[in-house]
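seq as requested:
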Amino acid sequence: MKIVLASNNPGKLAELQAMLAPLGVELLPQGALGVGEAEEPHCTFVENALAKARFAAQHTGLPALADDAGLCVAAFGGLPGVQTAYYATQFGYAKGDANNVRALLEQMRGITDRRAALVSTLVAVRSPQDPEPLIAVGRAAGEITEAPRGSHGFGFDPVMYLPELGQTFAELPPEVKNAHSHRGQAARQMMQLLRERWLAG
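struct tokens:
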């Protein structure tokens, strides 16, 4: 079965491709099929992921899978949320992982409540009008460190500390990170949903 991935992020494609391979699913990046980026005007992960999946399905005629993910900080009322990728730009920095981490640590200086969660929402649709999208949500809860630690991963991994593991995501080997990460959790749920709803029979 071919499914278009509503993303051109090579890291995301590789992670999801590896996880979905056992199902016999071939994941095709939307860029390879000439599909541009969908608008993401919504304030929740699920609405943006659904918009991206419907857009990709509409432009390719294939079932589509989309992911919307971000960091939700308790002290900021759950923000930056869907604006995570652009977080640093609010504070005059260029867009990018290192600047996002720098801006976050600056904004959290002096804040004692450092609880945060990385959230990943995967949405799959059979067609643009699919009335029953598959929705899987993964959530990795932890705390924001005072300074970056570790060299693996990307995004906020160097400052996302997981108390049960005693390390940040960036300090964990990739296979351990994937077993505990928000995207890993969501992908495992999505595999189960695809198996039960689309591939059964």
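The chain has one domain: 2-198.
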